[in-house]
Design a protein that fits this description.
Shape: globular
Low-confidence stretches: 300-304
Mean pLDDT: 80
Largest sheet: 3 strands, antiparallel
Strand content: under 5%
Structural class: mainly alpha
Strand order of the largest sheet: 1-2-3
Number of strands: 3
Radius of gyration: 21 Å
Amino acid sequence: MAGNNTVICAFLERPLTDRIITVQILVIIFLCVNMLLIVTFFKKECFYTSARYILFFVTLLSDSFLLLMTDILLILTTFRCSMQVWLCIIVCFFVIVYSIVTPVTLTTMTLERYVAICMSLRHGQTCSTRNTKYCILIIHGLSSGPCIVVISTFFSTASISFYKQYAICSVEMFMLYRWQDHVRSAVNQFYFFIMGITIIFSYAQIMKVAKAASGENKKSTQKGLRTVILHGFQLLLCLFQLWSPFIETAVFQIDSNLFRNFRYFNYVLFNIVPRCLSPLIYGLRDEKFFLVLKNLLPASSNSE
């Protein structure tokens, strides 16, 4: 019946809801703002030769890609579009990896602020452009860990014929047995713990320097401290996303309608909101970036 199709949909059977329309508006706004910031990044050489801005650029790209992919999956799920399992594996591979890239990058950005404030004499060498490029590779390698675990446990249990079957694509599709869900939860909690400890350590060390600093150094340190706090809040929201599958599984066993409401709430709060904070932290709070961004806007051009 499916023929050679890899995706089968029933668009006419599922009308658009207010929730889906709301998500589309939020995602479009988010992507437009991110594209503007990405253009701004390439407007000045100091941005793509500085570790903090390069890492910010990585978060912009990963967040934009993740929001686009998850939004597509949301639409496919809403309209009950099923796809062959092998195709879903490819899609979910990138979704899982890039859902981890942002919190790992935020943790790295926090460490960069720690080096800049607490080890200022070594900052230029440690956070050079070359080292930052290597760091991006390491970030993607570390972010692949949970995905490799999920996919490996699935490959070890699924039959070959299962890959040609059609199903609604989601990460939960790979949880054929309860122990696989426990393994995924354990890996996510491990990442949660390591990144949380890193944020707390960096905050504590910067706080010590802030108390001892004076004059311009104190002002710069206080600004770095506020940045770390914002990173911590943003990272906390992203890290809660690592716990949400475990909570969703428990909610699903209670009530399916409650599960759908809870999943929508999770998607907005732990996927969209944290990724809207990056433009605020660096796009608006950073003076250099904001000045270049302001000059790109038509209103500022006309006023000049």
